[in-house]
TrEMBL record:
Reactions that this protein is recorded to catalyse: GMP + ATP = GDP + ADP
PROSITE patterns according to UniProt: GUANYLATE_KINASE_1, GUANYLATE_KINASE_2
Region (Disordered): 1-25
A single cellular component GO annotation: cytosol
SMART domains, alphabetized: GuKc
Ligand binding (ATP): G32, P33, T34, A35, V36, G37, K38, G39
Gene Ontology molecular functions: ATP binding; GMP kinase activity
Record-stated family: Belongs to the guanylate kinase family.
Chief location bin: cytoplasm
Source organism of this protein record: Bifidobacterium lemurum
InterPro entries: GK/Ca_channel_bsu, Guanylate_kin-like_dom, Guanylate_kinase, Guanylate_kinase_CS, P-loop_NTPase
Pfam families listed in its UniProt record: Guanylate_kin
Gene name tied to this protein: gmk
Protein name as catalogued: Guanylate kinase
């Protein structure tokens, strides 16, 4: 007997009511302010749940020492990137510092979603907005997750404590963080990164709910 809450899909996997594309689950778009610890939370999540798939970005910048093509980034020439962009092969693109192109390849995202593999894209605030717009055009389902600090003072403490920036750079990052924190209401779900273990577990529960798999 059909579920009244289940969307009706046509033969090609589209819902005429929502315009959504059928997938094994929604694309998890992860973002948050600078220094909030997104990368650390992501690393813990991947350690605990290696079955998830993290989208690998494409870029036209040169590989840095130790970076591996297809693992850290998909490295390509500018002409290759521009051709793929023109062909609609990216979910989103950006030019960073007026030089290098960056983008999220669309094909692998769609393939993993269609296979029911938990699929995550970690991206900055502007990128998350571009993904949301492009996904709406494509009929691709996304759920946006914002990683937030317990407080701005705690974010400041963490940023200063890691000691990787000059005082001037720290001040600039904190001003950027204020703008990014103001975007929190734009997101579907907010996870407060009080501890890495708890934030990673909370993120997994979001993924589990989306993909119909057991929570922690």
């Amino acid at each position: 007997m059909p579920n009244d809450n289940q969307p009706v899909l046509d033969a090609e996997g589209f819902s005429p009511t929502t315009g959504s594309r059928r997938t094994g689950g929604r694309l998890i778009v992860l973002s948050g302010p600078t220094a909030v610890g997104k990368g650390t939370v992501e690393a813990k999540l991947r350690e605990d749940h290696p079955e998830i798939w993290m989208s690998v970005s494409a870029t036209t910048r040169d590989p840095r020492p130790g970076e591996v093509d297809g693992v850290n980034y998909h490295f390509m020439t500018e002409s290759e990137f521009v051709d793929k962009e023109a062909a609609g092969e990216f979910l989103e693109t950006a030019v960073v510092h007026g030089m290098a192109h960056y983008g999220t390849p669309l094909g692998p995202v769609e393939e993993h979603l269609a296979s029911g593999v938990p699929t995550i894209l970690e991206i900055d605030l502007q990128g998350a907005r571009r993904v949301r717009e492009r996904a709406a055009e494509l009929g691709l389902d996304v759920v946006t997750v914002f990683i937030a600090p317990p407080s701005f003072e705690e974010l400041k403490r963490r940023l200063i404590g890691r000691g990787t920036e000059t005082p001037e750079q720290q001040a600039k990052r904190l001003e950027t963080a204020k703008v990014e924190l103001a975007a929190e209401p734009e997101f579907d779900i907010v996870i407060v990164n009080e501890t890495v273990d708890k934030a990673a577990a909370d993120l997994w529960n979001v993924i589990a709910d989306e993909y119909g798999i057991p929570r922690e």
